[in-house]
Amino acid sequence: MNILSPSILAADCWQLGQQIEQVQRAGARYLHIDVMDGIFVPSISFGMPVITSLRKRTDIFFDVHIMIQEPERYAAQFVSCGADMVTFHLEATEHVQETIDAIRQAGAKVGISIKPGTPVQAAFPWLEQVDMVLVMTVEPGFGGQKYMDSCTEKIRQVREAITERGLSVDVEIDGGVTLDNISVPLEAGANVIVAGSAVFKGDVEANVSALMAQM
Ligand code: DX5
Ligand code: ZN
């Protein structure tokens, strides 16, 4: 089953609670939470206190995408704050195994992510150990960018590798999704779709419904 994961990076922070209620009312079961450290990516977003306070008010699945250098330093803390899944970048660490183990031991699902310039094969050694592979379809750091068509083939290749090995790993894509192009990553084999601007600009409930109708 395909899943929409609205990214609150594009939400109006003044109305964050209401907007999360709106995505839930429209049927979304995941919430994508982008944590940026200003080092791995050239921007800073939000972190633990925000996740902790949201967790007190909602049961929606927290799909936490950490764009942090040396994610092993903080991965387990995000689980304590309420992350259901923590996805980190392979480019950000030399300690992939330790990071996977830390997330798993803390009790959350594990995702690994690759930037547009990273060959998809970088994810292959880890497929048996993770719940999800996140193929970035924009350079991480900012919302509102254009979907990079060059990444579609990577979605296809990782899905193929997962199927060949008989695994049940989710393939998520993140960046530049619109109503017009959402079918492209889905057809290539993605089953978790992040959407920021396409959800939070305009009528949130109507946007979620329209996107989910295409899935
Ligand atoms: C970018 C973030 C994305 C971002 C997507 O680094 O990881 O999750 O919020 O935003 P849109 O959907 O607007 O491209
Ligand atoms: Zn993200």
Core attributes:
215 residues, alpha/beta, eight-stranded parallel sheet, 8 strands, globular, binds D-xylitol-5-phosphate, binds zinc ion
The DSSP helix count reads 8
Q: Write the element-wise H/E pattern from the N-terminal end onward.
A: EHEHEHEHEEHEHEHH
Calculate the mean pLDDT score and round it: 98
State which percent range the strand residues make up.
15-25%
Reading side by side through the largest sheet, how are the strands ordered? 1-8-7-6-5-4-3-2
Small-molecule binders here are: D-xylitol-5-phosphate, zinc ion
**Helical content (DSSP H or I, runs of 4+):** 25-40%
Could you name the ranges where pLDDT drops below 50 across 5 or more consecutive residues? none
Gross morphology is globular
Describe the structure.
With 215 residues, the protein is an alpha/beta fold. Helices cover 32% and strands 20% of the residues. It has eight helices and eight strands. It has an eight-stranded parallel sheet. Helix 4 links the parallel strand 4 and strand 5. Helix 2 runs parallel beside helix 3 and helix 3 packs parallel to helix 4. The longest helix has 13 residues. It is globular and about 40 Å long. The termini are close together. The mean pLDDT is 98. Bound molecules: D-xylitol-5-phosphate and zinc ion. The site of D-xylitol-5-phosphate (DX5) has 22 residues, from strand 2, strand 8 and helix 7.
